[in-house]
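Students often ask what a 'structure token' actually looks like in practice. Rather than answer in the abstract, let us consider Cytochrome b, a protein of 182 residues. Its sequence is given first.
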Amino acid sequence: MVETAKLSRITIALHWLVAIGFVSLCVMGIYIVKAEAWTWYWTHKSLGVILFMIIVARAWWRLVQGWPAPINTYDKVEQKISKFVHWGLLAGTMFIPISGMIHSSASGHGFGIFAWHIVADNPALDPKDGVIAYSSFWASFGQLTHKWVAYCLLCMIVLHVAGALKHHVVYKDKTLLRMLGK
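Now compare that with the structural description of the same chain:
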């Protein structure tokens, strides 16, 4: 077994902030759409922008620090799957908020952090008509990308959790405990 250093508190904190934030926003987003609970839409977008800032910090931290060394040596196929999933998680968590911001701004709905508008709504002249889209192409592109990347990312999260549990239960190594700060 390879001895590796503990993960830094920053690495652990960024990992769990993004993980919990992302899963929470996915649940909230699915609820908003399925229940047509549009009053939660601005909250979803605001929390998404805040989480995006944390995701950017995590991506920067990961690129500067590099990937943690594996605790043990593993099969080459498993290593390739692990790299694919980790890069997919990092890229996907970046693309989801970006696509959400593209959708919101291009559709004329704007986005921001609660009362602070980064991109304001584009209201129609008659308030009962709602908003005017800047670009229906980019609004549709953003919406579809936001939806499908989220579904793909949820699948990668399942693979990530399965891998962590395999390390813990089958290999009985300290990979999972290391990410829990132990």
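One point worth highlighting: The first strand starts at residue 111 and ends at 113. Ask yourself how you might have guessed this from the sequence alone, and why that guess would often be unreliable.
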